[in-house]
Fold:
Amino acid sequence: MSRFGNLGARLYKGEASYDFIGKRNIWYAVSAVLLLLSIGAFLFRGLDYGIEFEGGSVFIANAPDASVADAKAAVVESGVADTGEPIVTKLGGDRIEVETLFLSVADSEIVLDALAAELGIDAGEIQRQIVGPSWGAEITNKALTGLVVFIVLVAIYLAMAFEWKMALAAIIALIHDVTITAGVYSLVGFEVTPATVIGLLTILGYSLYDTVVVFDKVRENTRGITGSNRWTYAQAANLAVNQTLVRSINTSIVALLPVLGLLVGGVFLVGAGALNDLALVLLVGMAVGAYSSIFIATPLLVQVKEREPAIAAQKGRVLARQTLARATTGGGSTAVGRDGVPLPGSSVVDNPVVIPRNRTVVQTAPRQQPKRTTKSKRTGPSAPPRKKP
Structure:
């Protein structure tokens, strides 16, 4: 077995453990910084919405020898005043895309002819698409409606399958993922297109899936915990995170590698376009989703659960018992349970000390052996007569 696989086995058995729950303030601080940067990007830079959301006109021509400057000059010199600042993009090495504000059919014909003359191609070879502002607004409303419906359905499912506190922690983690992903989108300056919305819904599903796997293990480890004096809720939840850690890392790496290849290929081979929009939102969203399922969702759940009176009382009993156990074993070794498994959240040592059962030791006198007699004494006159068979 590889070293990584061996570590995964030790984490699952509880022989090795990292205190994710106990260091939750560190993870909260990291997320707070990322969220502040994302919100700041929204306020000061905003999102660059694509033509599908804002409306406008787009012209796509197959012109390998055309440059971005030539296409922009053609639009400016066409004489149409309402084009705005044209956005010209090279799509791969052969095609060029020009975006303007919403144009009437007559104005779009003028711009199309100007582009054809400047690029040296026939006007019929240029693809033209006009999107009205009302259609773009409708797409925006439908995208927001779909996002809200998705979050509501997720909350209902988690509340029914687990409990409402798990649903609350999962929804907060989802909002955390969406905010940071959108913030990165704003900082990078990619356009928000329908492909972006599709990618956003995809990463929400991925993040939710990873969180549900961890929560399922938390539920398994904490079943009937209020009647137990072995682990606190936080320790059992921390064990669940450790048990699913290697699986989460492997799943994330396998999912991120092809997306990273898609993004790199889109930037260097195809150029800007819907491929990049989809790849960027998937890359950032999957990475942030894996982070939140480990470092945000479960610590939030523990923080909410520990407000319950029964959980708080059980925590006091267990911590008192563990403190006494550590004092009994000298306090310098890792405390482990009766079956030899280290208590979750404790440090890892090579030779853990097992907490013994409480036993009452009764001292007794040493057992005396009977005196040995010689054969002559056994057969002498005073010896008792032997019974005949």
